[in-house]
Amino acid sequence: MPSEGRCWETLQALRSSDKGRLCYHRDWLLRGEVRGGPGVGGALPAARGGTLLFPSPWLGRRCEHDVLEECRSVPKLSSYSGWVVDHVLPHMQENQPSSETSESSRSTSDLEQPSCVPKSPVRTPAFSPVSSATADGAEDKRESQHAEPMALQSSRGIKVEGCIRMYELVHRMRGREGLRQWQEEQERKVRALSEMASEQLKRFDERKELKHHKEFQDLREVMEKSSREALGHQEKLKAEHRHRAKILNLKLREAEQQRLKQVEQERLRKEEGQVRLRGLYGLQEEVLHLNQQLDASEQHKDVLKVDLSAIRTRGNQLCGLVSGIIRATSENGFPTAEDQAVAERALQEMRDLLTSLQQEIARACEDKRRQDLEAQVKRQDSHMQQGPEVHRETPAPSQGPGGKQNEDLQVKVQDSTMRWYHQLQDVSSQCVLAFEELTNSKDSQAKKVKMDLQKAATIPVSQISTIAGSKLKEIFDKIHNLLSGKPVQSGGRSVSVTLNPQGLDFVQYKLAEKFVKQGEEEVASHHEAAFPIAVVASGIWELHPRVGDLILAHLHRKCPYSVPFYPPFKEGMALEDYQRTLGYQVKDSKVEQQDNFLKRMSGMIRLYAAIIQLRWPYGGRQQIHPHGLNHGWRWLAQILNMEPLSDVTATLLFDFLEVCGNALMKQYQVQFWKMILLIKEDYFPRIEAITSSGQMGSFIRLKQFLEKCLQRKEIPVPKGFLTSSFWRS
Fold first, then answer.
1. pTM of the prediction?
2. The pLDDT of residue 405
3. Are residues 147 and 219 in the same domain?
4. What's the DSSP call for residue 51?
5. How far apart are CA 614 and CA 138, in angstroms?
6. How far is the CA of 250 from the CAs of 241, 246, 259, 371, in angstroms?
7. 304 closest CA partner among 236, 364, 378
């Protein structure tokens, strides 16, 4: 529109003028502010919301005069104001909000009224759209303060005011629109930046996760590679180790085999040397024994026609030769085969000497007996010729072991005792014949049964000890059940004598043999062991009498002094066989040493002395002991009625009285003490007479024991005797 263009040109020109550059306050007239005066600088309301500052007093007075004149004129609207109301405001109302439209309508209606014009809303400078909100707030405040009706301005002021308001409105709308667009643009940018940042963050996280995965994968590959390398290295080391270990094992095995070979050779050499040494000891013992027999032939020197001194001298030389060989081997180690051969030749020469001497003695005795018979016949003939016949019995003198005449004692055992001895040996022989088929069987099953039965019979006896009475009862029950035909556990298997018809005989024989063997070995080494073994044997004897007979048979065979019985030397009997009948162990023509022989005899006599005084505590008390103290009294009486044997009789008497003396004292009392006095007064001198100086140990031990008992008038309880507290354990 042309008028609108002129309006904007006018405003632009006004802005470029000096007045437009003044600080203008558009409400100066409404507020009634007129400042300044003549001669001083004045101020008018500025066109842009401020006060106009006048540069000179004249200009101030002129402006003040014009303004005052204009204010005193009659208010009226110009034609331009009506044009603005008709043409400009309607177009503006289309772009304004409802509130501003209402305000414009009110302004228009007010313009049409000549009386008053309401205060226009506060406008925001066109050149400052950003601060529109702040200007609106201040303008609303001022509008509220000046809402009362005011006088209409002049047409020029209204025109200017309308232009200004239109300009402000346009610029405010433009500013708002620009601000809205700018805000939307910023929001879009913010959203875009936010989305872009979110996407970048996602990509960053993805790249970071991918990097971590790659690093983890690389690390795992490195670890797997190193692990494979380590495993390969380890396998290589293992292979090398196995190879070296194999080589080392081969070397060790070779060294061990070499060592074992050397040890075996050394062991064989030592065994051979020990066998030779034992053989030499046996040869020496036999040589000494034969030399003693040579010395014993001194009693026949009156009837012999040979020189006994030369024979004894040669015997002593042979003894010295054997002793020298043994002494040399003791210093140098083991004897050689040559040493053994020399000793055997010396023994053979000693045997030849003794044999020739015995033959000479036999011939001399026969000649003397023949001469005595001839002399007796001659005397009888002379008596018959001289007068009545006088009959006199002249008994033959009894010769003892030492060649002295026996006046009171005997050498042979009583006939009743010998019959009893032979009966027991017959029982043992019959028992052996009864299970001979089982012993000689070649069947593997029969051999297995025999082995199981032997273990079941002998192992429990080996387990007998003084640990506890309950343990002893378990062993007794196991043996009793085995003999009764009940199955027992042995070696993890069930064993019974019913497995074989000859099983019971075999078990009884082996059981009796084991009891005696325990006395020979265990009791000989540990005297206290006699009592637990004896009480079990006594209990089994009471329930199974045949076992007791077999125990006595084995005991008499191994220790004939338990009968008591001194086996005689028979003509034609070999020396080794005779030594076996005396109880000596002979192996490979070698007789055991005297100390070992006495030790074994002592163990068996102690076992026998314990058996005759003990009974099984859990058995019936109504029955008598199957082999009680009366047999001990018989044994003691019979051995005192026999000639003593050097070193043997004293040892056996001491062992028997130490174990059984207390029980015999309680049983026989005064009679027992009489027998002890008899031993001291009559039997000690006989033992001492036949005992050499080197064998006085056993005699002195027996003498001191009996003297102490007589002094105390009591035989002490033997060590290891089973008391009542033992059976409660």
1. 0.48
2. 36
3. no
4. E
5. 140
6. 14, 6, 14, 86
7. 364
Tell me: do 340 and 465 sit in the same domain.
no
Q: Name 642's Cβ contacts closer than 8 Å, sequence gap at least 6.
A: 409, 410, 411, 413, 564, 566
Give the phi and the psi of residue 51 in degrees, each rounded to 5.
-95, 135
Evaluate whether 501 touches 485 at the Cβ level (below 8 Å): no
CB 351 within 8 A of CB 576: no
Long-range residue pairs from 292-296, CB within 8 A, at least 24 positions apart, any chain: 293/354, 294/353, 294/354, 294/357, 296/403
Q: Which residue type, as a one-letter code, is found at position 721? A: F
Q: What pLDDT is recorded for position 47? A: 41
Mean pLDDT confidence for 679-705: 86
What residue has token string 């095995």? 253
Secondary structure letter of residue 467 according to DSSP: S
Hey, how many other C-beta atoms are within 10 angstroms of the C-beta on 487?
15
pLDDT in tens, 255-294: 988 888 888 888 888 878 777 777 777 777 777 877 777 7
Quick one: 346 and 472 in the same domain? no
List, in sequence order, every residue forming a beta bridge with 587; answer none if it has no partner.
Answer: 590
Write out the two tokens for 5: 């263009």
**If pLDDT is split at 50, 70 and 90, which confidence band does 442 have?**
confident
Q: Which of 348, 383, 418 is the last residue before a domain boundary? A: 383
Are 214 and 352 members of one domain?
Answer: yes
Which DSSP helix (H) or strand (E) runs through 44? Answer: strand 43-45
Dist CA 49 CA 707 (whole Å) = 161
At what angle are helices 155-296 and 2-16 packed, to 10 degrees? 80
Region 107-113: what's the mean pLDDT?
42
Q: Give the pLDDT score at 533.
A: 92
The DSSP output letter for 393 is -
What backbone phi and psi angles, to 5 degrees, belong to 569?
-85, 120
What domain count does the chain have?
3
How many C-beta neighbours within 10 Å does residue 166 have? 20
Residue 471: domain span: 457-484+506-727
Cα–Cα distance for residue pair 340/141, rounded to 1 Å: 154
> Dihedral of the CA atoms 322, 325, 330, 333 (nearest 10)?
-140
**Which residues make Cβ contacts (< 8 Å) with residue 605, sequence separation at least 6?**
559, 561, 562, 652, 655, 656
Angstrom distance (rounded) from CA 434 to CA 708: 50
The answer to whether residue 542 sits within a structural domain is yes
Of the three residues 118, 133, 156, the one that is the final residue of a domain is: 156
Type of residue numbered 556: H
The number of beta carbons lying within 10 Å of the beta carbon of residue 497 is 24
- Separation CA 168–CA 160 (nearest Å): 12
Residue 405 DSSP label? B
Average pLDDT over residues 113-138: 40
What Cα–Cα distance (Å) separates residue 651 from each residue in 240, 302, 631, 665?
72, 35, 19, 20
| Degrees, nearest 5: CA angle 280-286-288 | 100
Contacts for 655 with CB less than 8 Å, ≥ 6 apart: 602, 605, 606, 609
